[in-house]
Each structure stands twice: as structure tokens, then as C-alpha cells.
Amino acid sequence: MSISTTPVNQSTGNGTSALSVTIPAANSGNVLIAVVAIVALHSIAYVVSGLTCTNVVWTYVTRTAGLLDLEIWYGIVSGGNSGTTVSFSLSGATSHTAANITEWSGVLISSPVDNSNKTSGSGTTPTVPTMSTNFGNDLVIVVESHANSTAPSATPNGFTPMTSAASGTSL
Questions:
Q1: Which of 2, 40, 51, 94 is in Cβ range 3.0-4.6 Å of 67 for a Cys bridge?
Q2: Smallest Cα–Cα separation from 30: which of 139, 131, 162?
């Protein structure tokens, strides 16, 4: 089985002090990718401390720290189809949160992440950091967010944009 080139399903959600996203039940053996943007209420960076969803085991991948926190998590669906609500546990008061959750088939669940890299900047044209993958048909997830709900003006070459989630921040 090869990895899908488009997500099986995609859902978005946003909120302020709490965040839950309703998703279609994901198939057992598939992988969920959750990307989240958090705008801190004060000068202290807040983060996601965990995710929950029935029959999904979540693993943290990477984040950018700061008043605008971007995080990537993946969840392996096993023991039956997933539940239909993904709940994010946030570490404190936030002003805005937004999340995008995608379901993917064909992901190597024994080792779903083989590399990660990050960069930060300003403006509305995303810059993708250099990264090498270990396999020819890897799925690469790029996350971009703007604290003022400004949508990016360009998509990096070779990438397909996902549905934006916005609530004082765009993702």
C-alpha cells in the first residue's frame, strides 16, 4: 500500500480557552495528523499538553515556541475506528487556537515520522526549511500561521494547501 497523496478526511476547528475538533470516524490502521496554532494571552508561551480521541494513540512531533505556538502531532488509529472528537489539552489561558486534523492512509505506522525541521519568519510568503526524507514517497507537512488571521499569499512550490482554520489566527 502506498501513502495517499490527499487526505482521506480533513476537519478544522478553533476556539479560545478550549479546543475540540469534530472529525469523521477514522479507519483503524490510518494515521491522523493534527496541526495546531496557539496565540498566547500573555507573554508566556502556552502549548498543547496532550490530545485525546477514542482508539487513537497520539505522539508529539515538533513545535515552534513563542507567543504564536505551532505544533504537529500524529495519532495512530488502532483497535477499531477512531472516535469523532479530538480534544486538545492546553497548558494555560490562550486568546485564540486553531487546528487542522487530516486522516491519511498508507502511512508506515511502525515509523510514521522519519524527519522534521522548522524555521520561523515574518510576512505572508512561507519559507520551507531544507529537509531530506528517508523514502521516496514521504508525506511532508508544512505548517504556517499568522497571528492576525492573514492568509498566506503564496503556497510553496510542490505543496497543496489544506483547509484553513481561523480564530484570530490562521492556520
A1: 40
A2: 139
CB 142 within 8 A of CB 128: yes
Q: What is the pTM of this model?
A: 0.84
Instruction: Please state the length of the chain.
Output: 171
Q: State which amino acid sits at residue 49.
A: S
How many angstroms separate the CA atoms of 75 and 118, rounded?
A: 20
Tell me the C-alpha distance between 82 and 24, whole Å. 8
> Which amino acid type is present at position 116?
S
- How many angstroms separate the CA atoms of 70 and 39, rounded? 9
> Which residues of the chain are under the pLDDT cut of 70?
1, 40-46, 65-67, 92-95, 120-127, 145-158, 161, 165-171
d(CA 46, CA 6): 31
Strand duo 68-77 + 94-104: pairing: unpaired
Dihedral over alpha carbons 133, 135, 138, 142 (to 10 degrees): 0
Task: Identify the CA nearest to 62 among candidates 34, 43, 89, 29.
Answer: 34
Give dist(CA 73, CA 70) in Å, integer. 10
